[in-house]
């Protein structure tokens, strides 16, 4: 057989010397160290094995079996005849040599068995190490995914928090606008009620005046009838006297009658025009009342809609706040669980390190025991074992130093990651500040727009004031015409009285007067009918208003029911999410249990390995560690080179930014100089203005008086604009409705984004479940993993383990 990890130079450097068979007696001769052969001719040289790519520096003790010299037939001669005593000595020596050869063969067989067991154990160790590396890689991938998911979730939660803050700000603005609208509507309603009361008073006053005028006319007619009766009595006495004058008076009477008829026609025209104007005014009053009622209804409906929208927004805001609180609680729980897991893993690592140290001690003790046993059997292998132990200690010291360096590098890496996270948080804060500045700019733009609208409204208000002045002029003109008509009526009444005095005998005059009275009574009746119709219309409007209020209450109840159903649906979704979170916790607990079982299995396997491992396995592990550490050192060197390049780039950027900073500092100094100059200029101007301060104070007092007058005029203008708004309706309401619709669209978009994020979260959870199942399948004991053959290193010492090639101590005969 051939031993692995043997130096090829051992066989090339062997001195050609063969000892006699008696030298194998340990008690008689000196010890032969390291299996070197002193005399040539007795051992057959074997071909050296091919040099492998991964040949080790340290070699195991190797031997070359001695071949006995060929027995040559000696021809007995008389001279060469030996005595019987010499022959017996030779026979004894031959027996001793044969016994020693058998003893050596037994030892070789035992060594071969031990090496076979060692090879099997090394294969099992390699398989277990591969499984361990695979599991550790899967766990590291899971940890990386978990960290990435946590970072993504934290970013999402921060985005949701910013969105919620923006929504809160918008809701506050909406509430402020709602309160302002409420106050404006209350003011407008109070003014509308005051205007309605004024219109009612005017209407009552006009009705009272008309009634008083009709009563005065009736009284005058009654007085005239009484006078007519007295005059008839007097006329009957004086008919005889005036019979002669009647004929003359009849002619005059006919002329007067013609004039009277013309005057009646004029009076009828005037009365018709007056009645038409009164009707027009009544119609205008009715139209105004209808407009006021319509405006009131519209205002109520808009207020109701606005209140409903605000209630829905508040409900949505409450639900979003609840979701945010739940998500924060979940995030806190996840962070606590993650921190607990990290602590547990750190504890496990510390325990594993302690166990490794104990196992190393045990292995060293076992190794010492085994070496003692082997020293009794094979004393020649002591020197090599001592050398290997020294190498092991050196490698151990190197590995300890490298592990310390790695720990420091890991700590530095974590510190850099923490600094990067802090920078990211600062960048996020800067973005939030930029967003807030952007919202402030938008609010200022909206304020400017509102100012423009106010200017337009002021212009419209001025146009309305002009129209109001024109209307006042028309009212004055109507009043003057009314005065003229009253004067004409009074003159007409005087003419009637004169005619009554002159025409005592005419019955026609009395009948005409009666007809006029009847007409006046008919007009009074028509006015009373109109009043009754208006009162009935008022009752109808009141009933309609009550019906509208009932409808409002019913719609509000329906909306409340809808809101309750929406709340129930949201609560059910929240419960579903809570159940999913519980399932995730259960899955995590199962993963922890699987990991604990895996750790237990690893512990058992390690204990089995430690009971079986010997000097060769320790040396092999140390060499593998050396190669791995060398690879890591190379990778760390490459990383250092990359980091030095990055540091050079950062220095270049720092130099550029320092130049910019110097320029800004220079500009800042220039600005400070300009500020000093401006301060000096201000002081000079103050010194110049000193004697004129009294005049300035007087001007300021005048300005205060003028501002007070301006405020008075503005209040009057506001009252007039409110009256105009009562007539024309609110134009800003449509803009507010558009603003609320924009808010709704934004809210819908955010809800869609939230749904997408939840779907992504579910996908990630499914992926975690798959990976956990794969880990469970990997940890099942029933599966066996095939070892991959090293095709490139077939002739290496690793691949030659366990082969049945003839060794240096086997019998070749």
Key terms for this structure?
813 residues, 0% strand, disordered C terminus, elongated
Provide a brief overview of the structure:
This protein is mainly α and 813 residues long. 84% of the residues lie in helices and 0% in strands. It folds into two domains: 1-69 and 783-813, no CATH class; 118-239 and 249-652 and 713-779, no CATH class.
Q: Give the overall average pLDDT.
A: 69
Percent of residues in helices comes to over 70%
Radius of gyration: 60 Å
Order of helices and strands: HHHHHHH
Structural class: mainly alpha
Main sheet properties: none
Strand content: under 5%
Rough outline: elongated
- How many discrete domains? 2
Span between termini = 15 Å
Low-confidence stretches: 1-18, 24-63, 71-81, 783-813
What is the subunit arrangement here?
A: single chain
**DSSP summary, beta strand count:** 0
Q: Helical element count?
A: 7
Chain-wise SSE layout:
Elements: H1 9-12, H2 84-377, H3 382-502, H4 507-612, H5 615-689, H6 693-728, H7 732-779
Helix pairs in contact: 2-3, 2-4, 2-6, 2-7, 3-5, 3-6, 4-7
Keywords: Coiled coil, Cytoplasm, Cytoskeleton
GO molecular function: hyaluronic acid binding
Biased composition (Basic and acidic residues): 779-793
């Amino acid at each position: 057989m051939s031993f692995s990890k043997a130096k090829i130079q051992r066989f090339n450097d062997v001195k050609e010397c063969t000892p006699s068979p008696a030298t194998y007696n340990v008690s008689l001769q000196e010890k032969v160290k390291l299996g070197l052969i002193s005399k040539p001719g007795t051992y057959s040289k074997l071909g050296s094995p091919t040099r492998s790519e991964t040949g080790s520096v340290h070699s195991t003790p190797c031997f070359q079996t001695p071949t006995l010299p060929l027995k040559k037939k000696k021809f007995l001669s008389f001279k060469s005849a030996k005595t019987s005593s010499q022959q017996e000595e030779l026979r004894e020596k031959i027996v001793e040599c044969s016994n020693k050869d058998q003893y050596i063969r037994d030892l070789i067989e035992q060594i071969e068995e031990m090496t076979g067991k060692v090879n099997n154990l090394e294969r099992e160790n390699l398989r277990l190490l591969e499984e361990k590396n695979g599991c550790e890689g899967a766990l590291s991938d899971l940890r990386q995914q978990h960290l990435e998911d946590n970072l993504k979730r934290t970013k999402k939660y921060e985005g949701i928090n910013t969105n919620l803050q923006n929504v809160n700000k918008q809701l506050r603005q909406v509430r402020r606008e709602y309160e302002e609208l409420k106050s404006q509507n209350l003011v407008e309603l109070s003014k509308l009620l005051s205007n309605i009361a004024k219109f009612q008073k005017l209407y009552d006053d006009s009705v009272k005046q008309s009634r008083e005028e009709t009563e005065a006319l009736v009284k005058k007619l009654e007085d005239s009838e009484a006078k007519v009766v007295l005059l008839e009595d007097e006329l009957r006495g004086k008919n005889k006297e005036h019979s002669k004058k009647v004929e003359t008076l009849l002619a005059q009477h006919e002329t007067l009658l013609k004039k009277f008829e013309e005057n009646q026609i004029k009076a009828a025209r005037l009365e018709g025009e007056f009645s038409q104007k009164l009707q027009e005014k009544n119609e205008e009053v009715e139209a105004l009342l209808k407009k006021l009622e319509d405006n009131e209804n519209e205002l109520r409906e808009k207020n109701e809609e606005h209140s409903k929208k605000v209630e829905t927004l508040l409900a949505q805001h409450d639900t979003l706040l609840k979701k945010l609180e739940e998500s924060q609680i979940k995030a806190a729980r996840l962070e606590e669980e993650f921190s607990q897991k990290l602590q547990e893993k750190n504890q496990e690592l510390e325990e594993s390190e302690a166990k490794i140290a104990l196992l190393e001690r045990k292995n060293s003790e076992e190794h010492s025991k085994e070496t003692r046993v082997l020293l009794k059997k094979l004393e020649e292998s002591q020197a090599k074992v001592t050398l290997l132990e020294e190498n092991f200690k050196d490698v151990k010291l190197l590995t300890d130093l490298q592990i310390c360096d790695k720990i420091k590098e890991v700590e530095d890496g974590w510190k850099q990651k923490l600094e990067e996270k802090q920078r990211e948080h600062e960048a996020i804060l800067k973005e939030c500040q930029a967003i807030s500045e952007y919202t402030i700019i938008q609010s200022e733009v909206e304020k400017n727009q509102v100012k423009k609208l106010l200017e337009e409204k002021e212009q419209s208000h001025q146009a309305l004031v002009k129209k109001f002045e024109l209307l006042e002029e028309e009212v004055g003109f109507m009043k003057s015409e009314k005065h003229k008509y009253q004067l004409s009526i009074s003159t007409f009444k005087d003419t009637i009285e004169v005619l009554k005095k002159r025409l005592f005998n005419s019955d026609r005059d009395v009948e005409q007067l009666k007809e006029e009275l009847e007409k006046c009574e008919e007009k009074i009746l028509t006015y009373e009918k109109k009043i009754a119709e208006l009162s009935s219309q008022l009752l109808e409007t009141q009933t309609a208003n009550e019906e509208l209020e009932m409808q409002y209450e019913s719609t509000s109840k329906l909306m409340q029911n809808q809101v309750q159903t929406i709340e129930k649906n949201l609560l059910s979704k929240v419960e579903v999410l809570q159940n999913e979170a519980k399932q995730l916790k259960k899955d995590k607990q199962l993963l922890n249990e699987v990991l604990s079982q895996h750790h237990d299995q690893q512990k058992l396997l390690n204990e089995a390995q430690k009971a079986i491992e010997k000097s060769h396995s320790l040396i092999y592990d140390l060499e593998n560690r050396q190669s791995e550490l060398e690879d890591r050192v190379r990778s760390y060197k490459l990383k250092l080179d990359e980091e030095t390049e990055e540091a050079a780039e950062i220095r270049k950027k720092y130099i550029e930014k320092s130049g910019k900073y110097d320029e800004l500092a220079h500009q800042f100094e220039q600005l400070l100089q300009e500020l000093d100059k401006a301060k000096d200029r201000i002081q000079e101007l103050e010194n110049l203005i000193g004697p004129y301060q009294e005049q300035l104070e007087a001007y300021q007092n005048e300005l205060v008086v003028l501002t007070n007058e301006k405020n008075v005029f503005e209040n009057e203008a506001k009252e007039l604009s409110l009256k105009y708004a009562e007539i024309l309706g609110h134009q800003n309401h449509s803009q507010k409705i558009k603003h609320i619709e924009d808010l709704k669209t934004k809210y819908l978009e955010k809800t869609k984004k939230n749904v997408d994020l939840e779907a992504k979260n579910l996908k990630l959870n499914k992926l975690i479940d798959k990976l956990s199942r794969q880990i469970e399948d990997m940890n099942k004991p029933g599966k066996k993993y095939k070892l991959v053959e090293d095709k490139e290193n077939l002739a290496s010492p690793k691949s030659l383990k366990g082969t049945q090639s003839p060794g240096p101590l086997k019998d070749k005969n």
